[in-house]
Batch of 4 targets.
Target 1
Amino acid sequence: MVCSRGVARRNVATIFACVMTVVAGISGCGGGSSTNPAPVGAIAVTLAPGSATVQASKTASFSAKVADDPKNDGTTWTLSGPGCTGAACGSLSGTLSASGVPVTYTAPTAVPNPPTVTLTATAVDDTSKTAKATISLTPAAGTTATPTTVSVTPGTANIATGGVTQTFTANVANDAQNLGVTWSISGTNCMGAVCGSISPTTSASGAAVTYTSGPSAKAAGTVTVTATSVAEASVVGTAIVTLAAPAAPTATTAITFSPVNVDSGFGIPAIATDSTGNIDLAWINTDGVHFTRSTDGGTTFSMPIVITSDFSKNLQNNLLSMVVDRVGDIDLLWYRVLDISDTMVGYNISRSSDNGATFTAPVQFTTGTQPIAGSNVPTIVGRPDGKLVVTWIDASSNVLAEATSDGVTFTAPTTIAPAVAGASGEQAVADSAGNVYVLWETAPTASNCSISFSSSSDGVTYSAGKTISGASGACNSQASASVGSTGFLAVTWVADSTSLFFTQSLDGGTTFATPISITTPANPTSDEVVSGLDGGVYVVWTASGATLFASSPDPGAPFSSPPTTLGVAIAGGSTSLSVDACSNVTVLGANGATAYQRSNDGGATFSAPVTISQSNQDFEQQLAADKFGNVNFTWADDNNEAVDFVRLPTVCHVP
């Protein structure tokens, strides 16, 4: 600032002020510039939602955001209304909140007149800055002249068990906040998930939900689908669903592969399915192992290819085995006789890693004496990593194992148990994690026999053998094992030729439950246990000339008693039993010709035998079920010198 001397007359106070201003460095009095900071931005408040309709005693959430709030002190909240004051306007979960933090408004029990409340959010740091929301209050549900109602559409439905779906909607009248409904189900013959499921379990008025029927036909009967108003819990709407057992599936017409020298000790088939449902079928003929595949559910099969093997000295039935592992490799195991006296055999393996288009040249991984059919034949199991594990008992009663990752190069034999007294009945199973479980019979004397067990997490190193049949009998034999979808290991065996026992392990074989007895007539044999996809345990066996069946709904639960007598004869050592995710049980056998029996209620009842062959000279009936529930049958037909195939389509819709 310049204080001019050229002014003739100047007010003294003005001059003094000018001087002081210059000293302070503030512009004015003719010039200069300020060094003070610029003023901060103006605080602003926004509130969401800006309006809401709330029933008496119900709640709604609001939040306020404060812009340019340097101290982040947030807002205070107040309620007011033209027809109310204080609690008569409602209440808040808090009267102070940080920016963006919601508060909950609870409407009064009595609606004021007029039924309007104003919610105000005021900035703490600038009380001149506010935002408001208008709340319209309505009477409690059911208290108006038009009460809350719920109607479900359709009101009735008729569907089958087994995962069949039905869509429902609930329309809610006088639901001012559109809170919608919650869904629940109950049944005359079921509880909880057995009755089925609803998805989603809450819905707005008019929004569709899907009911899925329970998997097992045990739930057949009526199921009530209930929609309950969220706003008024006493208001419901219902629909009645009548559940029927699914119609029995019809088996396809047999497909025949011929000529096969069944009556010359060949023709014994093997069957397996892969993770996508493709069907692999193989059998032995004089010129080698024949393999074919179906990729269309058994409608057509590829031209069989032959894996050449010298069977010129073979005279007896040859038990062919096939495993499809979880990466899709197909492994075949068989033996061929090595000498004209029919005493020594060589065990061979061949693998395909291209869906059965080609197979490796057979690899003879061990030799042994001519086996009695079904006794001491090596077992093959596939791990998820593609490693194939072979286990067997050699001529010196050693329990052995080898592994291969390519079907050609094998590890050196691993001794699981050396020089086992009376070793016999070896078998192995693998779980989805790749753990391998091996069982065999140890028999120091004819009256002292036990079931022994060992496990491996890698297919190469094995735990020390241990007895799992304690306290079940003096002589235990004929063990059968199965691994459930949840990883539990189920084992059955015969004790003293009079009893049938079961045990299980839930920790990968570290511990086993105390064996429990399954009711049976005398002389049980050929026991086969299956861990069903539905979580149950199922057993089929032969006793006193009859085929018998029993089941347990959960691992460790008692088995059904007395057992059910079936009308088909099962083949010892074969795969005869299948259970799908809907508790449909299929047992394959013969009643003169090849036939099966079916239960769609977990084995509580069975159909009469259904014949699927016109021959009375069928042998080695085998079945393989895919993950969808389709069951595929094969057998050797001696009358027609052929291998036959039939498919039983699924009626189960649970993925």
Target 2
Amino acid sequence: MNQRLRSFFLNSSIKIKLELMVMTITFVTLLLASSAFLIYDNITAKAASLSELRLLGEIISKRIAPVMIFEDADKATKILADLSTKDSVTLACLYTAEGNLLAIYQQTGISVNCAKSLDGVSAQESGGMTIKQIIRAPNGNEAGTLVVISDMRELTGHLLHSIAGMLLLIIAAMGGALLMTMKAQGAISTPIMDLASTARMVSEHSNYSLRADKYYQDELGLLVESFNQMMDEVEKRDKELQGMNEMLESKVKERTRALEEAKMKAESANEAKSEFLRNMSHEFRTPLHAMTSFSLFGMNETETDTLQETLHRYFVNINKSAGRLTHLVDSMLNIARLESGQELLTMHHCDLRTVLDGVVSEQQGLMRQKNITVSCESKDIDTEIICDEMKISQVITNILGNAIKFSKEQGIITVTFSRESRLLHSNGEYVEALVVCMSDQGVGIPEGEEDKIFEKFIQSSRTNSGAGGTGLGLAICKGIVEAHRGLIWAENNKAMAATTGASFYFALPVDWPEGQFIVTL
């Protein structure tokens, strides 16, 4: 039973718990206070009754003292009869000085009788109160003894009335306490129930934007405030988690797209390599065939009287074919070195305008064939930087060679220099750089292929047939420029909404320490 009550109390709502606690405390307090009061009242009433009984005994003794001189039993009995006015007095016994029974008063219906002699009187004759009053004659001598016995009916009635009053008081107090508790408990239960309701709604609906109302500036208010702060943090974490999930989904999609692009690039690279092998086969076969043919011509002509001029022409052609083959082999070696992930740079002061002039001078033969002119602008720009002159010369040679190859007859190739602050690294730091731009009037670059043409084995879809080439020149340029911690890019020239050639740019940092460095690509 106790376990059930305890379980009921523990599993009840906070409202019921508060009411039960207050009512229990109130009841126990009132019960203890009432019990103490009843005990005190009973003791006080008993003492008062005993005092009243003694006073009554003294009065009767003084009235009956003259009678005791003559031991007049009739008069004594009449005087004792006056005790009938006191309902609680059940028996009165009057004894002579010698201890003999002289007179008696006995309430109707009382079974207790007086003892024959004073020696036989008990202190508690009827379970009530008993007093013994000495009667003295006018001369002061002891004339007799009066014994008065009173029952407890009056005290019992008083006690019952007190108990009834106390019960009514307890009931009234409990009722008032219940009403006050029902009114006052809301100050505690309402915030707690509201907080519990909010927590339940958050749990059921996963809605972390809900907040509990703060009613008071007490501990419950602090609890609600802490709960709301916790919900703020949970909501923040939930949004961050949602953002991370969305970012993760985005990354998964991006990775998937990247894998698809990588797959397409791999397939494109395989196709490009196949095209590269076909081109290389043609490029290697052509000079080798020329070398073989002209060497055979030379061998045959040595057996005849061929002119020295004819033999010289044969050897010149052999030399050109060998040079072309050497260029192809050098390109392959350059690509292999770049793919190794390291590049050796020999850095020293170098004037790029002078390097450009040297490259233009070397390319004069090709330029005359198509009557192409190179125009160098930006005469007042300082073009001296620290770089690997041989490698930058190769970059200018490859870009200028492409411009000559794809330019139309009587075209103009414009070269400009500029110094500016540019973002060359991924660290977000701007550095002073020398920017070189070579613009031609050729066929231009197809839209979307501006970055693709710098990849190995890749040629522009507009120039990958008929013009020759291996698709390695621009890839080598990109590797050399990036080894210098620079940038290289290409753009189409726009004029009157029509494409009129392309511009190739590369930017190199001005400040480099001198000496030899192995650069990790």
Target 3
Amino acid sequence: MDLIIRNGTVIDGTGAAGFRADVGITGGRITEVGDLSAAQAEREIDAAGQVTAPGFIDIHTHADVALLARPTHEPKVMQGVTTEVFSNCGLGFAPVNERGLAIQKEYLLGLFGDDAGVDWSWRSVREFLDHYRGRIATNAAYLIPHGSVRVSAMGMADRPADGGELALMTDLVRQGMEEGAWGLSTGLWYSPMSYAATEENVAICKTVAEFGGFFAIHMRDYGDGILAALDESYAMCRESGAPLQVSHLQIGGARNWGRAGEVLAHIDGARAAGLDVTYDSYPYTAGSTLVQAMLPTWATTGGPSALLERLHDPEVRPRIVEAMDAADRDWTRHVLCGARSAGNRVYEGETFALIAADRGIGIGELVCRLLVEDELQACFIAHLGDEDDLRQILKHPAQMLGSDGLHLPGKTHPRLFGAFPRLIARYVREQGVLTLEEAVWKMTGFPAQRMGFTDRGRVEKGLAADLVLFDPAAIRDTATFEDPCRYPEGISHVFVNGRLVVEHGRHTGALPGEVLTPR
């Protein structure tokens, strides 16, 4: 064998109890699991006191640009992630035409981080995926983003698609599925996807279903209207035949705290009725996205350039200010992050309420200035969830882990660096919300099952050797909201396709990741 991992406790990703076993690796595959005391290998690792688990699969990421710009991908590799699934929330860049790519880059790059050195020459899904082949540290699996398809067909138009536009969208989705996508993502909270009628959503999901794919949805509402948003998602699932993955399930706003039982019962009802519904979530009570996503939809009609024109228009800007001043938001819980301008970077980590007071302006005016000064690229973190709701969401059998990490400069959300070890440290070891076997299942076997991966997500003979070794007593996240770009502790080794990308807690620089496509 090439390598034997000896004396570890194998937690195999199925949810079954851990067991003592050695693991043999040859040619990038797991060749034996069991007592290998009589076997020899070119190299051996003593995993005594550690867990040998499948590499973690992050089913909800925004790694599209980061993996191209920084292929060693330390924020995720160092926490044991071996497979990244993107695009999510309908926010992405392929398939796309010239007009669509220009819109997406101008609109979305604030969410995706520095794109220095990225070659933007692709247009199709095949061309896009080719940019990753042979040069990334983790595996990559792709979901077609509804946003890129829609802007390619009809720009940022604030209306339902007509027949010709819908036909073009379904053709783009079909081509993308043929070229290696596993499914589709949409984000009905974001313009222009928020303008899509039910018929559009069902039609594109039907195309996905033809290929055995699923769709992931950032719903229209996670607050007061969360049940109605779930009902809309169920209807898309039922009418299209495509399985449903609810993205980053959360319950926002203090007046909705305590509703987890109601929401989860609603999901149970859909599953009992025969719908294939699962969801992902992250182990934090705060979320994060673009500042411009908080604007009323009329302000974003026409795309980024049109929005900037409105922000500079002395007749229109006061309407935006008024709308934001009247928004039902607790601005003491909204924190600036990922600022691009030097003047705003000093405010990263501060609440919108504090920044507005410091600058001597109202909230609405602050939002407008942030957007203009940061050229629409500013982001925020919103602390809107409840810890007890979070625990119930994490424990539910339909839940799997997804980091939703944003590769922002400055004070990004700590989930980018800490989501996976945090689940084990806080919700297994400290609080006992999950067993270690349940947590590993939610990070490995379950997302592999949802994706349709047949050769990874478990520690099993014949499967790809994506593995992580960690100390269950020491693993923990160290990233905080105040200091988010910190690597976790307690993870000693990470293998991707049998090659070490983390050795004794240090990145090796190896780039053994593969582009995973449906067989």
Target 4
Amino acid sequence: MLRTLIAVVWAGLLGGCAVAPTHPALWDQPLPPLIPVREFVANVEGTSQYRVSPDGALLAWKGTSGLKPAVWVKTVASGETRAIPLSAQSFVWSGDSRFLFMTVDRTGDEDTHVFAVDTSRSDAQPVDLTPFKGARSGIQRLVENSPDVVVTSNERDKKVFDLFRIDPVTGTRTLVAQNPGNVIGWSVERDGRLRARSVQDGEAGYQQVFEGGAWRTTLRWQKGEAWRIADFVPGTKSAWAVSSRGRDKKALVRIDLESGAEEVFHEEAEVDVEQVLMSRRTHAPLAAYSMPGYPRAKYFDAGLAARLEPLSGGAPAAVHVTSMADDEQTMTVSVGTDRGWKYYLLRGASAAPELLGESNTSGLESSLAATRPIAYTARDGLRIHGYLTLPAGAAARALPMVLLVHGGPWARDVWTYQGANRSVQQFLANRGYAVLQLNYRGSTGYGRAFMEKAVAEYAGRMHDDLVDGVRWAVAEGVADPARVGIYGASYGGYSALVGATMTPETFACAVDVVGMSDLSRLIEDAPAYWSLDLPWLKRYVGDPANPAQRKIMDAKSPINHVSKVRAPLLIMHGVNDPRVKFDQSERMVAALRAAGKKVEFVSFQDDGHGNRKWTNNLAMYRHAEDFLAGCLGGRSSGFDYYQLGAWAF
């Protein structure tokens, strides 16, 4: 038995050696060394999400302990560290710097819990503050100078979220406000007082303020408009907000919460203002961030600009303050490029920045590729922006290419490297592919009009934008038209299926990750907490309860077009996915196989709509590189020895 096992292992090792490129355009290209898959998904040197406590005495960050995810805590003065063995999605410090609050989704079903760790005790273990079965909870607001945290949870009614204040010392939960069934957002002051709520009214909405024990309606917004409060202005009935009310692009504004009147403080001509850094001391904006192509920051504080601007080294970079101590002199800063992130601690205006850590690929920069912004005109005249990544050292001459489609579709691709689950462009470029990422119509960041051009355009003009991008790459001499693959997750996975079924002449193969194959079932099986967003979603996708619209949705569903498939498909899906149910892929695979089409199907246990477990990411990347090598002719690293022990994690 042992001899047989050894033979099987050796067969896997010897049979899984690296595969050289078979596409002629790569034969004489000076490609960089192959980066093992494990470096992208399980590099134990990689760290992220550094946060300093409000008193400046403690640091926390995400890393690994052994090969398992952990949150690390360090006492800045002594350098003493400890690992908290928990796979947290995100975390924040309590207002009194004692507790670390973490959001955790153990199985990918998005029933997120809020945990607390008392960092004043070296033996303290994470405590679940929201131990609700089948419920989704999240952090709404920290309470200044207090251990308390304000959280949202749909434990009572799965469709909507109530508001609670929790004392982590005792675990006591106090109901702050019960959702009447139409509240999509709560606004809480820094002292923990509930100030306002946003109410959904179809696709429009209105704000209500809480006064005298009752709710009173103030300002309103219309279909397609969006806004969020960045901070309240003390002693007034106004706030700083990022808003597109009455305009196309989101801008940083000061808004009168009674009348709704807005005064624009900062805006960008080409794109939305996407993020704002606010002062905890003055409640005024310190910086605004946008991404027209390369990252852009606008500083409103000269002293802060003097400290941060040198960190870019005079080249494009996304320089973001990720946390600040109460004194606003001690802060953590992330510096991102197209090849990775570095993290710094800044202490005092005159102190030199201290390098805290780097993302998992920062040590591999010489083997990674440059990403550049691109733009082209779609067939109907709309200007489309995106990014092109070529293999490091390779000339752009009819290369095999992967069209990498972002999910959402209400999201966007950016220039900066995005970490383990979004390092796909660098992974594919290292394998020898040109990688094209497009912010097709419907993507966020380019204003309301651009986004709304996607209404009723699933498998229509949204897909035309992708095909037009491929044609642009072919005309530029970048892509071999006979060797273009399409790869995407969620909406991107749907795009991959649309490409394989409805424009099969364009793509040599397709990789679908957690993509939908049946639009009607997507709406009918939507999670309960999507209920208030369904009018918005139906506007773009359609309403299956309407027979005429259902007929159109069925015509745009890849599962009804499997007979047109010409090329092989790779379909991958997490079994616990609550958004795009696992059966969307199961049914698509069954239909493809019944039609005699070539399809490989991979499922991920204990994961959902996007993998959180490195072992599943290892499997995803390995299947993808072998599959694409077979249909496009790039390289594959072959068997990764981490696969031998992945079962243990």
